[in-house]
């Protein structure tokens, strides 16, 4: 029996940054997909991984990311990438969370940057994000706990905090790679990723 729904945040409640990455690359004559390639190479130890676990500060991330880009023959400062992360909020997913919250415990596991790392965040946007976060029973941020998805420990940490077992959960994430350890823990329940995540989630949970 499903008791909890565990959500990702960026790329689920906001639009994906991948389009912003592609625009940045196109404008500068950089092959499209370069930033995503940098982020996926040595994904457990690269600049992105270290920053999301607060192992380096902004200046350290800026330097390490630039070094990784240089390996691919490109000049991309890490500080150029951070503003590209902010997507538009998706009202339909927020509404899905509100509906699902009436029947299930809810948690959010997010691989995020140290607070305000991207800089220039508008007050209104910050308040809106806070409003969404307050809908969850539990929020776990990689930058605060020092581990990130897809480390299985962060999923177990959430289950413990919600007082449920993994098989009592449905996991929602826009990146399939983040769901691999969850799939090993929960082989029988849907692990939803990709487009129209809220429709898939409601369709399934409405039958539960």
What is the gist of this entry?
The chain is built from 11 helices and 5 strands, in the order βααααααβαβααβαβα. It has 208 residues and is α/β, with parallel strands linked by helices. α10 (180-185) links the parallel β4 (169-172) and β5 (191-192).
Task: Present the secondary structure layout.
Blueprint: E1 4-7, H1 18-27, H2 34-40, H3 47-52, H4 58-71, H5 78-81, H6 91-101, E2 105-110, H7 123-133, E3 138-141, H8 142-145, H9 152-162, E4 169-172, H10 180-185, E5 191-192, H11 197-205
Parallel strand pairs: 1-2, 1-4, 2-3, 4-5
Question: Within the largest sheet, what's the order of strands?
Answer: 3-2-1-4-5
Going by helix content, strand content and strand pairing, the class is: alpha/beta
CATH class assignment of the largest domain: Alpha Beta
Strand proportion, as a percent range, falls in 5-15%
Structure overview:
This protein is of the alpha/beta class and 208 residues long. The protein folds into two domains: 4-16 and 89-205, Rossmann fold, CATH 3.40.50; 18-85, DNA polymerase, domain 1 (Orthogonal Bundle). 45% of the residues lie in helices and 10% in strands. The chain contains eleven helices and five strands; from the N terminus they run βααααααβαβααβαβα. The chain has helices at residues 18-27, 34-40, 47-52, 58-71, 78-81, 91-101, 123-133, 142-145, 152-162, 180-185, 197-205, and strands at residues 4-7, 105-110, 138-141, 169-172, 191-192. Strands 3-2-1-4-5 form a five-stranded parallel sheet, sandwiched between helices. α6 runs parallel beside α11 (197-205). The longest helix has 14 residues, at 58-71. The N and C termini lie close together (8 Å). Residues 119-124 have low confidence and may be disordered.
